[in-house]
Design a protein that fits this description.
This protein is mainly alpha-helical. It contains five helices and three strands. Helix content is about 75%, strand content about 5%. Strand 1 and strand 2 form a beta hairpin. The structure holds zinc ion (ZN). The site of zinc ion has 9 residues, from loops.
Length: about 240
């Protein structure tokens, strides 16, 4: 058996490994798990954002409470002074009344904002519960599927190891120089070897000089396609 035939067999084994690796990656359950993991992560981000907003709202509530209290106090003080007649001139009374009105407006505005925040907070709270529930559900689903997937993954890994062993066994029959060449091309493209058919490289479909077929027949020399660089191959039967 020529080295090129052994190398061709090696490529078949190599392809079985690569194909199976792709199959593992595209395994539907794995895709589903990745999607769920993204959903959980997204919802965690939303939850964190909502918690942040809630903390800011609490700070604002505190601020508004203090503002309301201060306005109430100012209002009461001026009212008391007016009642006790401590102001001497009409201008002073006028100023006091205007300060009272100002304090009253501030009080009203603080109360209005407070009321708005309270009704808004109920909505936020509901949304928060909803998001947390969805996140918990996605997490549960993830955990459940992960158990199923882990078992499947164990089987897949065992099969992949088996295919890799087969590849290594076939590879051990190939001389080092051929294998080095194969691996160098392998890092650029796959498949590495392409059959020559009707003077065409089946790797890139480029027409090659008709002398190429003659050159390949019975030869164990590496001939690369002048267009794509793949190792051209013809089996002995061809
Ligand atoms: Zn080619």
């Amino acid at each position: 058996m020529r080295q090129l035939d052994k190398l061709w067999n090696y490529q078949q084994a190599d392809k079985r490994v690569t194909d199976y690796e792709t199959e593992i990656r595209q395994f539907p359950l794995r895709q589903q798990l990745l999607k769920l993991r993204n959903i959980v992560a997204d919802q965690q981000t939303v939850v964190r954002g909502m918690e942040n907003d809630a903390n800011k709202a609490l700070d604002r509530l505190e601020e508004l409470g203090a503002q309301r209290e201060k306005a109430e106090q100012t209002f009461a003080e001026i009212k008391k002074s007016l009642e006790e007649g401590t102001f001497e001139s009409a201008a002073q009374v006028h100023k006091a009344v205007s300060q009272m009105t100002d304090a009253e407006n501030k009080l009203k505005s603080a109360e209005k904002e407070l009321a708005k925040m309270v009704s808004h907070s109920k909505m936020i709270e509901n949304r928060y519960k909803e998001v947390r529930m969805k996140a918990a559900k996605a997490r549960d689903e993830y955990t459940r599927l992960k158990v199923v997937y882990d078992k499947e993954f164990e089987k897949q890994t065992a099969k992949l190891e088996e295919l890799k062993k087969e590849r290594a066994a076939v590879g051990s029959q190939v001389e080092a120089g051929y294998m080095e060449r194969y691996k160098a091309i392998r890092s650029q493209c796959f498949p590495v070897m392409a059959k020559l058919k009707d003077d065409q490289c089946t790797g890139c479909n480029m027409s090659l000089p008709s002398a190429t077929a003659k050159q390949l027949q019975g030869s164990d020399e590496i001939t690369e396609c002048e267009n794509c660089g793949r190792i051209l191959y013809m089996s002995d039967a061809e």
